[in-house]
Amino acid sequence: MLSAILAGIGLAEAAQHGRIALPDWVRNLLPPMADVAQFAGLGLDQISVTGQKFTSDSDVFAALGLDAARQLVGFDSKAARMKIEALPWVETVELTRVYPSQLNVRITERTAYAVWQVDGVEKLIDKTGRVLQDIAAGSVTHLPRVAGAGANKDAQNLMMLLGGYRDIYGALSAAVRVNERRWSLVLANGSRIELPADGESMALAAVVTGGRLAQLLSRGPVIVDLRAKGRIAVRAAPAKTAGRVRTVADAAPALLEPKRGEVRP
Q1: All structural domains of the chain
Q2: Tell me: the pLDDT tens digits for 49-100?
Q3: Rg (CA), the chain
Q4: Which of 134, 190, 213, 256 could form a disulfide with 241 if both were Cys (CB 3.0 to 4.6 A apart)?
Q5: CA distances from 168 to 68, 73, 157, 162, 227 (A)
Q6: Are the C-beta atoms of residues 60 and 105 closer than 8 Å to each other?
Q7: Helix boundaries (H) for 40-192
Q8: What 3-state class would DSSP assign to 228?
Q9: Residue 100, preceding peptide bond in cis (omega within 30° of 0)
């Protein structure tokens, strides 16, 4: 029965679009296909959306284009899937058509990986650097924090590197991306570790050998500069960064807001 109905609707649609020869007066008498499908019980009457926590139903419905698609016959599931997966939190979506009139939408969302501060705004990002949503400053404290242009794209690589240096990772307040080339690690006590643009792993391995980094940090807030290959430079951190760091700007305002015309290494 369903096959016959679908076949009939297909023939009527073909006739309306001129793929079957009919006199114009006959073609003009044919009702719109949406009305035919609705009358045949194939209208899109029920939609089930599951799996989402941060994606609103209204955004999903808008992506489905329900104003234009009122029936399952001819529904472009590929286009709808692409539009839904373009929503910030959505990683994958599965669309299942259940005839005669139901569409099931199963969403798998992305996982927040870090907080990215850029242009004075804090954003949640996933491990690929995709922005999930803006958040209130300081409202998320359990995720790693990165800052600066391009920091979102390289955050996962940095955190994987620091995973091998638990003392540094545990003391990390934020990581600032400088000129989209290198990282400045801001520690909770106001110290900073300036990493080179290349060879970060080798530089960190050299400074932690024999407990050297722990000794340097025990002196109080210091800046440990590893940018020069084979050399470790240490200087006292500015007095205003002493004490526990609460925001990236507290510890490294100059990194986030370089002077006009200045190019930082």
Answers
A1: 43-109 (3.10.20.310), 114-256 (3.40.50.11690)
A2: 999 999 999 999 999 887 655 666 567 889 999 999 999 999 999 999 887 7
A3: 29
A4: 190
A5: 54, 58, 15, 7, 17
A6: yes
A7: 57-64, 77-85, 151-162, 166-171
A8: coil
A9: yes
